[in-house]
């Protein structure tokens, strides 16, 4: 028994009266009275209101509703006095309160009772309205005799003048009213949308399932909607990492929109039980927090692909976006015919997003399981490639041979994905990663990244890696611009924010690099790559104590990562603290008896100590190991002390650079 049981009972009586007469309203009301979930009660109450408002728009305003927000139509019905004032009030209250059905964190169950009370009032009135509409018939128009007598000639001549004056006055009044309506935002919503930049962020969908293990489903749906919308060139779509923080933070629509720099937000809820799923989606305009469009999908799991396609298409239509044939084809494309394989893929992405070693290993298992269900599942192969590349990025490999095997697996998975689907931006980006860091195929990497951006202009990671690749070519201005573009698409990603300062460091623009690195630390003060970049930049500025402090933080926050320890050793050596540098060097030599220590680590410390012979000896070994650090051999200030040495010039040529 709920606190609104009486209201539901009254709606059940109204449902009996509606049955067989108004099919659309009957369908939504039936769903409402059968659910015991308060969030869903609010959502279906709004759906009932939508059915009634859509009908009133056609009957009273003499036009189809299309995608116009409910609030706008209610205001017009009120302004034109088409509906009694007390019914307008009930409509406004229901419309306002029912939107919280998709906001579980802000939701108070006591809001359900007034929503249902208002819905009851509206439906009772609507039934009387429809009955009156059926009974009443249009009155016959009065026929006027417009024949004029001879003595009425003066009046006959003057009437057109009066009519003209009245007409002009009326037109002037209409213009004033229309301008006022636009100014006060009563009409003209479509025009306003056309003028706004089509920038959009998809907030993490809330999981309404009682089983917390279904969390992967809500995150998966969020990812998929982002990916679908990213295929539309007219939309600027932010990536998942920048919206993830709002899963826990409670902020208003306007606050979130301002922080993310977008004009539109998508939010929603998901619920899944066995083969049934319920997805609620809302599109909100940030500037006035208008709910432009909402939909509730109550379907079977096998319809997931159709549902995702519909969501993307309807959002595009609402934002007045014209899809190109290629974009429409991309959205229509079904990644797999096997819902179970898709299920496993979503779980893989869920664990991949954790970025932990255990999470990545679990993700690999799910992606492999998805491939077993569907051997032509391109996205699953792309997921595998991303996993192996992530192992390389976070140095989860255990040996030189192990790292080679990981690179090879990542490359093979990316190639397989592209053989199945040559339009996957993620797969091109993953393949470019391998070509850039391991194969040193600079032109091949550049070409793949350009193709990835062409296929998905809003894929922040592609822009990030494109910036890195441009640095290799010493195209520094372009690299900085691409790094900033990636940040626009993913403004709260620690690695993408850090990358702006990193590109400036390689361009020898040290003041700006420090400024951008400090800005990145505001996003995440514990992100060790940012401290490492800042430390190296301080070193180049001659700010030795600051450089040492930042590198010490980098070591601490990285949990004693071997490469970061080597960078600290380099900074110690370069600042004249030789004993500390040698202590780190000896520590790494001792550590190598237990775990793999990349040769580049020794080389960097020897450069700091000014021991060029040992530095070159270890650089040659790093070359044999295909160290990813060597892609910046011609641009990294670390290598400046070696540049005039013939051994350095020979290594540069051997790697395919043009110094």
Characterize the structure shown.
Among the domains are: 127 residues; 128 residues, 3-Layer(aba) Sandwich (Rossmann fold), CATH 3.40.50; 100 residues, no CATH class. Helix content is 64%, strand content 6%. The chain contains 30 helices and six strands. Strands 1, 2, 3, 4, 5 and 6 form a six-stranded mixed sheet that branches. The relative contact order is 0.05.
Which features would summarize this protein structure in a list?
659 residues; six-stranded mixed β-sheet; 30 helices; 6% strand; elongated
The CATH homologous superfamily of one domain: ABC-type transport auxiliary lipoprotein component
Helical proportion? 55-70%
Tally of separate helices: 30
CATH fold description of one domain: Rossmann fold
**General form:** elongated
Summarize the structure.
This protein has 659 residues and is mainly α. The protein is 64% helix and 6% strand.
């Amino acid at each position: 028994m709920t606190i609104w049981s009486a209201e539901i009972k009254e709606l059940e009586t109204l449902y009996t009266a509606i049955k067989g007469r108004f099919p659309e309203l009957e369908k939504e009301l039936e769903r409402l009275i059968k659910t015991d979930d308060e969030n869903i009660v609010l959502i279906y109450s709004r759906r009932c209101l939508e059915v009634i408002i859509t009908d009133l728009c056609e009957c009273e305003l003499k036009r189809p509703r299309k995608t116009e927000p409910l609030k706008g139509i209610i205001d017009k019905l009120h302004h034109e006095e088409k509906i009694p004032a007390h019914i307008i009030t009930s409509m406004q209250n229901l419309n306002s309160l029912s939107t919280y059905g998709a906001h579980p964190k802000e939701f108070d169950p006591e809001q359900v009772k007034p929503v249902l009370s208002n819905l009851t009032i509206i439906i009772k009135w609507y039934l009387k309205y429809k009955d009156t509409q059926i009974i009443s018939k249009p009155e016959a128009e009065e026929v006027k005799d417009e024949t004029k007598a001879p003595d009425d000639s003066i009046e006959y001549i003057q009437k057109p003048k009066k009519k003209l004056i009245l007409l002009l006055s009326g037109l002037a009044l209409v213009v004033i009213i229309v301008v006022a309506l636009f100014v006060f935002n009563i009409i003209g919503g479509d025009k306003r949308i056309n003028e706004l930049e089509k920038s959009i962020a998809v907030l993490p969908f809330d999981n309404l399932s009682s089983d917390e293990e279904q969390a992967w489903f809500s995150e998966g749906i969020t990812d998929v909607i982002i990916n679908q919308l990213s295929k539309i060139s007219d939309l600027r779509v932010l990536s998942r990492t920048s919206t993830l923080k709002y899963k826990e933070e409670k902020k208003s629509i306007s606050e979130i929109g301002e922080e993310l720099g977008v004009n539109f937000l998508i939010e929603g809820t998901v619920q899944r039980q066995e083969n049934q799923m319920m997805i609620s989606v809302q599109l909100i305009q940030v500037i006035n927090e208008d709910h432009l469009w909402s939909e509730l999908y109550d379907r079977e799991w096998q319809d997931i692909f159709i549902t995702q396609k519909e969501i993307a298409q309807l959002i595009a239509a609402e934002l007045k976006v014209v899809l190109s044939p290629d974009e429409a084809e991309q959205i229509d494309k079904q990644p797999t015919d096997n819902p179970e394989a898709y299920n496993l893929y979503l779980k893989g992405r869920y664990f991949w997003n954790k970025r932990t070693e255990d999470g990545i290993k679990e993700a690999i298992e799910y992606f492999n399981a998805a491939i077993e269900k569907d051997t032509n599942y391109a996205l699953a192969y792309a997921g595998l490639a991303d996993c192996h590349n992530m192992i390389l990025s976070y140095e989860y490999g255990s040996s030189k041979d192990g790292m080679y095997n990981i690179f090879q697996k990542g490359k093979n998975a990316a190639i397989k994905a592209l053989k199945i689907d040559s339009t996957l931006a993620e797969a091109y980006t993953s393949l470019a990663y391998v070509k850039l860091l391991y194969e040193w195929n600079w032109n091949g990497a550049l070409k793949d990244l350009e193709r990835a951006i062409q296929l998905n202009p809003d894929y922040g990671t592609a822009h990030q890696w494109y910036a890195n690749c441009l640095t290799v070519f010493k195209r520094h201005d372009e690299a900085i611009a691409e790094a900033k573009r990636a940040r626009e698409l993913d403004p709260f990603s620690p690695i993408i924010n850090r990358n702006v300062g990193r590109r400036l460091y390689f361009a020898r623009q040290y003041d700006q690099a420090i400024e951008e690195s400090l800005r990145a630390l505001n996003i995440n003060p514990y992100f060790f790559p940012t401290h490492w970049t800042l430390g190296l930049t301080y070193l180049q500025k001659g700010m030795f104590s600051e450089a040492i402090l930042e590198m010490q933080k980098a070591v601490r926050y990285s949990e004693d990562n071997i490469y970061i320890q080597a960078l600290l050793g380099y900074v110690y050596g370069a600042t004249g603290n030789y004993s500390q540098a040698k202590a780190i060097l000896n520590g790494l030599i001792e550590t190598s008896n237990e775990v793999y220590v990349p040769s580049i680590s020794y080389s960097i410390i020897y450069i700091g100590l000014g021991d060029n012979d040992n530095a070159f000896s270890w650089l040659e070994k790093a070359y044999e190991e295909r160290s990813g650090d060597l892609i910046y051999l011609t641009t990294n200030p670390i290598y400046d002390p070696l540049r005039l040495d013939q051994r350095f010039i020979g290594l540069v040529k051997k790697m395919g650079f043009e110094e």
